[in-house]
């Protein structure tokens, strides 16, 4: 089995008296997708912000390629090959696809104060990088805001892969998408996995997680409900646990008792 790219053990985070995350452990391996599932308030956002360098953990251990780390900024995480694609994607809607692809790292030509934006290289590189991921856009000069939600997610994924990410963290990439567009995004998640990246997929939808996931971490109110390899859990059981199977059964029993009263 390959060495983990990321390993967190007993990770915890508090904000004053509020416990946002408590004793959570999981691993992210190259060529695998670790899915983190949970409803709103489960602790998913806190976990990815620790992995992405936005916040530091208060307890537990966070290792990257076997080395204990404590990131002080997202730049620290990027320097270690951890790229995060947030739900809002951090794109400029009126700017072209290729300018968004290189945002902050635009190619230039010339020297010193005479450096100019190399538009041809930017367009060509973007088109090639997207094609390598199987993404065929009509025109990389079109504003990124004209793309569908699924296409924008795919551009963000391709950008992270191009700039050398080893770990790709995706924050609810299918949350606002229809069935077809969600399927497109999941296809590119699988492609990133097949290129050897370790992927962390954050979602509240087990039907999106299960087809691409290799490992599943279920969170509830900041604590782990369970961690499973794919061979250890099937989709119906994953869905039941996500939906709060015991709570639903208790509610159903209570409703039946009220009807018979």
From TrEMBL:
Molecular-function annotations in GO: ATP binding; ATP hydrolysis activity
Keywords annotated in UniProt: ATP-binding, Nucleotide-binding, Sugar transport, Transport
Protein known as:
Simple sugar transport system ATP-binding protein
PROSITE patterns attached to this UniProt entry: ABC_TRANSPORTER_1 (PS00211), ABC_TRANSPORTER_2 (PS50893)
Is ATP-binding found in the keyword set?
A: yes
Q: Which SUPFAM superfamilies match?
A: P-loop containing nucleoside triphosphate hydrolases
Domain ABC transporter, first and last residues per copy: 6-246
State the Pfam families in the record: ABC_tran
């Amino acid at each position: 089995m390959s060495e983990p790219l990321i390993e967190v053990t007993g990770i915890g985070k508090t904000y004053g008296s509020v416990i946002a995350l408590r004793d959570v452990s999981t691993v992210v391996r190259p060529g695998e997708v670790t899915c983190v599932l949970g409803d709103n308030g489960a602790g998913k956002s806190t976990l990815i912000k620790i992995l992405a360098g936005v916040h530091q953990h208060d307890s537990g251990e966070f290792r990257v390629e076997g080395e204990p780390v404590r990131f002080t900024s997202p730049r620290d995480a990027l320097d270690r090959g951890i790229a995060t694609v947030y739900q809002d994607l951090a794109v400029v809607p009126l700017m072209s696809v290729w300018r968004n692809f290189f945002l902050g790292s635009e190619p230039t030509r010339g020297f010193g104060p005479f450096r100019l934006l190399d538009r041809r290289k930017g367009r060509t590189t973007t088109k090639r990088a997207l094609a390598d991921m199987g993404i065929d856009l009509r025109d990389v000069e079109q504003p990124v805001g004209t793309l569908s939600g699924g296409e924008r997610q795919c551009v963000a994924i391709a950008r992270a892969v191009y700039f050398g990410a080893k770990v790709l963290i995706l924050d609810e990439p299918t949350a606002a998408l229809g069935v077809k567009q969600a399927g497109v995004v999941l296809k590119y998640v699988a492609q990133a996995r097949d290129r050897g990246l370790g992927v962390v997929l954050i979602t509240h939808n087990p039907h999106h997680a299960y087809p691409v996931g290799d490992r599943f971490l279920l969170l509830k109110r900041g604590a782990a409900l369970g961690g499973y390899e794919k061979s250890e859990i099937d989709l119906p059981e994953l869905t039941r646990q996500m939906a709060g199977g015991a709570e639903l059964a208790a509610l159903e029993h209570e409703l039946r008792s009220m009807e018979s009263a």
